[in-house]
Design a protein that fits this description.
The structure is a homodimer of 108-residue chains. With 108 residues, chain A is an alpha+beta fold. The first copy, chain A, contains 6 helices and 3 strands; from the N terminus they run E-H-H-H-H-E-E-H-H. Chain A has a single domain, classed as Arc Repressor Mutant, subunit A, CATH 1.10.10.10. The structure holds a DNA duplex (30 and 30 nucleotides).
DNA sequence: TTCAATAGTTCGGAAGTATGGGACTATTGA
DNA sequence: TCAATAGTCCCATACTTCCGAACTATTGAA
């Protein structure tokens, strides 16, 4: 049975998006989610295995509250997906610009 | 006599840019600087007169360290300018996307 | 049904960060 | 030389972030 949990924020704010993605770990989580067809459990989406579970949970909470991801629960796992369409509707071009900058930085 | 002070960061990082602009006051400072032909003193660029001088000074330090602005000293005032070309060279499209999102948010 | 395993959340303390008041520096103009 | 102005520096308080430990919820097996 799949059910939505932790309903994501209704109103996505710019400050929320920027401060959420200002953290390199959260940015990598979002990048990972978009690459992997957009659905991963929390631990699977972790960019670094040494991060404490509680810290990771906190990062996902921040991403949810910023309206960047939506989480549904399937069995014991949580499935996380980027709300790409909602973000694009609210702030056209923003997410892509940030992700491209992230690629540019990694490539440098 | 004009002289450069507080040399701005050499390497502009994405995390630095995002966390600097995640603060609404700093984002408004950058918007204000770009509107007013890009040069304003610290107090003139303050979006809100009730902010403490020390807090404002701190915001400008963050913007400088993120590489977003350059500060030169002319007499008793500091002149601040957005390093638009440097930012564009490092992260094409990023600053414009953020500023347009800011306008979109304010208009909503 | 009971028990263990797994996935996340919540709590609390330690460490880091932001805010603003007051003292300080530097420049100008009287 | 003195007062005024623009910013910076320092410090105390308040707020965040990180992690370990305890907790909840779901599944699957004995």
């Amino acid at each position: 049975m799949v059910q939505f949990v932790h309903p994501a924020t209704k109103d996505i704010t710019l400050a929320g998006v920027l401060s959420a993605l200002a953290d390199p770990i959260r940015l990598q989580i979002v990048r990972g989610l978009l690459q992997e067809s957009g659905c991963l459990s929390c631990t699977a989406a972790s960019p670094c295995p040494t991060i404490a579970k509680s810290t990771l949970s906190n990062h996902f909470r921040v991403l949810r509250e910023a309206g960047l991801i939506q989480t549904s629960k399937k069995g014991v796992e949580h499935q996380n997906a980027v709300r790409a369409a909602d973000i694009e509707a609210r702030f056209p071009g923003l997410l892509m610009a940030i992700l491209q900058s992230s690629v540019a930085e990694a490539g440098a």
